[in-house]
UniProtKB/TrEMBL annotation:
The lineage of its organism: Bacteria, Pseudomonadati, Bacteroidota, Bacteroidia, Marinilabiliales. It comes from Carboxylicivirga sediminis. The chain crosses the membrane at residues 6-26, 38-57, 99-118, 188-206, 274-291. It comes from the Bacteria. This is Peptidoglycan DD-metalloendopeptidase family protein. The keyword Translocase does not apply.
Length: 465
């Protein structure tokens, strides 16, 4: 869960950064403000939504995909699970409990941002209820005793003196533009994103860029009814050095040089086509990272089993049958001499687990014999693993893994003692250990598994009768 969350944060941060840098390089100096605003909002939304979306592509070819062939060539090792589901869950829970402590500072900063957000909302509500209000068809005036003017959704906060001054209506026109374009929604969205994802540095640039676009839009609307020189003179006259809440859309002299420049600049219409580039880029990002190829059942089986990890319980993984039409040679001997064998208690395939009582895949064969019966190497090979780190009552207990020629590997588990060491060469019939009941076991027996090129196969299909 923690890994998935971290990957989500990484993806969303990188993508938001890519799209912001494109805006900064190509769009921030253009005068199509509505498109710029749409680009900023849609790109930041895309950055946080695209990791949650997957696209399924049907693949019906009879041959495995190139990806599968590459994986098959790369993953040709034989890995056995050393712990059953219970042990795995316990270790994961411990790791998760440890990692969760690192979430604490992240959560604390988010809480601080949330506190500031709620404080600003409460302060605005108090200002509304504590002062005289005048309801108009399009907006509500809040007459308060401050020398600055700002808007928040349908509320325009203005002082008595400015409201009754000759320039009051001109200032109101500027704030009405913020209301008409619903700029407060943009500000709310950015504040909420910063509460949850404050660690993304590009969100602060997005917020600043949106504030600029808001002012450019409001200036463009206001100067339709007033001379630009007179308008910006009024802006300077009404300026103040006070700080504003991120939720406010203020009438101020902030960005005054940029605002005057943008008020006199008109982008060439052809530059609107630049927006096709980020759209194409977004499609490429989705296709590159969120495509799920839906293949035929046989290919799905190959892909799934080739991704076995050490924490995947072997009895929960279905085996992959050999793809070729020829039957494998029966080149191995049984791991228990016939004179010592009492019975074969459980074969390869689906069965009911004797302890959990659940039906699941049994990827090997169980041989029952007397305690400390010799366990034999089924063929020539090299001992790759001798497990000394095991827990009684869990998993395979003591086990040995032997690598053979032609991609075969064999595992012998639930042993009572070892007779070999890692790296040792063994011959067919050599004693590699003594039969026991270590690990998850109901009594003395040998559990043996065989893999061919990393795939579980039925041991009896390659063992001489």
């Amino acid at each position: 869960m923690m890994e998935a969350f971290g990957l989500y944060l990484l993806k969303s941060t990188l993508v938001s950064g890519i799209f912001y840098l494109f805006y900064h390089a190509f769009l921030r100096k253009e005068s199509f403000f509505s498109l710029s605003r749409f680009y900023l909002l849609s790109s930041v939304a895309f950055a946080y939504l695209y990791p949650l979306v997957s696209i399924k592509i049907e693949h019906h070819a009879s041959q495995p995909l190139a990806l599968i062939s590459t994986i098959q060539n790369t993953i040709n090792q034989f890995e056995f699970t050393e712990e059953p589901p219970v042990a795995v869950i316990e270790s994961i829970n411990k790791a998760t409990s440890y990692i969760n402590w690192w979430l604490l500072p992240i959560a604390l900063v988010s809480l601080a941002f949330l506190f500031r957000f709620l404080k600003n909302i409460i302060q605005l509500r108090k200002t509304i209820y504590a002062n005289e209000t005048i309801k108009e068809p399009q907006f509500t005036l809040v007459l308060f005793n401050q020398h600055y003017t700002f808007s928040f959704f349908r509320y325009i906060f203005i002082s008595h003196a400015v409201w009754h001054s000759p320039n009051g209506s001109k200032i109101i026109n500027h704030e009405l533009s913020h209301l008409k374009h619903w700029h407060s929604i943009d500000r709310m969205i950015m504040e909420l994103l910063l509460i949850a994802f404050w660690m993304n540095p590009f969100l602060y640039f997005y917020r600043k860029a949106l504030e600029e676009v808001h002012e450019f839009q409001a200036d463009a609307d206001a100067t339709k009814h007033i001379d630009q020189g007179e308008y910006f003179g009024l802006v300077l006259q009404q300026s103040s050095a006070c700080s504003y809440s991120p939720l406010m859309s203020p009438f101020s002299y902030k960005l005054i040089k940029k605002r005057i420049k943008m008020a006199n600049y008109k982008s060439h219409p052809i530059k609107r086509s630049l927006l096709l580039l980020p759209i194409t880029l977004g499609l490429l990002i989705v296709l590159a990272s969120n495509v799920e190829i839906n293949t035929s059942p046989a290919i799905k089986e190959q892909l799934r089993t080739n991704h076995l990890t050490p924490i995947t319980p072997p009895h929960q993984v279905e085996a992959v049958l050999l793809e070729d039409d020829s039957k494998p040679d029966k080149q191995f001997i049984a791991p228990i001499a016939s004179k010592d064998l009492i019975k074969t208690s459980s074969g390869y395939g689906m069965r009911v687990h004797p302890i959990s009582k659940k039906k699941m895949m049994h990827n090997g064969v169980d041989y029952v014999a007397e305690l400390n019966t010799n366990v034999l190497a089924i063929g020539d090979g090299v001992v790759r693993k001798v497990n000394h780190d095991f827990v009684e009552g869990k998993g395979y207990g003591r086990f040995v893994i032997v690598d053979h020629e032609n991609g075969y590997s064999s595992l012998y588990s639930q042993l009572n003692a070892y007779k070999v060491k890692e790296g040792q060469k063994v011959k067919q019939g050599d004693v590699i250990g003594l039969l026991g009941s270590s690990g998850l076991s109901t009594g003395p027996h040998l559990h043996m598994e065989i893999k061919k090129d990393g795939h579980f196969i039925d041991p009896e299909s390659v063992i001489k009768q």
